[in-house]
Design brief:
Layout (H helix, E strand, L loop, with lengths): L5 H8 L4 H9 L17 E5 L5 E4 L3 E2 L7 E2 L8 E6 L6 E6 L5 E6 L9 E4 L4 E5 L5
Length: 135
């Protein structure tokens, strides 16, 4: 359940592009390989494009060769919510921003140590803030 009210979320959604809104609030998926964040190597934090909540740290980012930015863990357990996704034949775990409910992607159990998880993220729902630029 998002921490923001439906009214607050509706106000934030007004600033999104149609693709960002489709991914975040209609559980869409961007095409693999299209996010410029795949190549991002600087230290910093990845924030939710909707509400600006920090979701992932560059310290947990790795190259998964999946075509989407991938992380082995979120920035904190409280940053992310999960639910079961049964849209495809195999059940998956979908994740979303715990603050506003924006759909981020899916988490799989084929990632690297230390967690063994791959948080596969739609780059369209992320804003990268390099270390030192945090206000």
């Amino acid at each position: 359940m998002p921490r923001l009210t439906p009214e607050e979320i509706a106000e934030l959604r007004r600033k999104l592009t149609p693709e960002q809104d489709h991914i975040a609030f209609h559980e869409g998926t961007e095409p693999p390989g299209c996010s410029l964040l795949n190549a991002e190597k600087r230290a910093g934090l990845y924030h939710c494009v909707v509400c600006d909540a920090p979701l992932f740290s560059s310290a947990a980012k790795y190259e998964s060769r999946s075509g989407w930015p991938s992380f082995f863990a979120p920035v904190s357990e409280d940053a992310i919510g999960t639910k079961r996704d049964l849209k495809l034949i195999m059940p998956r775990t979908e994740f979303h921003c715990a603050n506003c409910g924006a759909h981020g992607g899916h988490v799989f159990d084929d990632g690297p140590p230390p967690t063994g998880q791959r948080w596969c993220v739609n780059g369209e729902i992320l804003i990268f803030r390099p270390q030192g630029s945090e206000g």
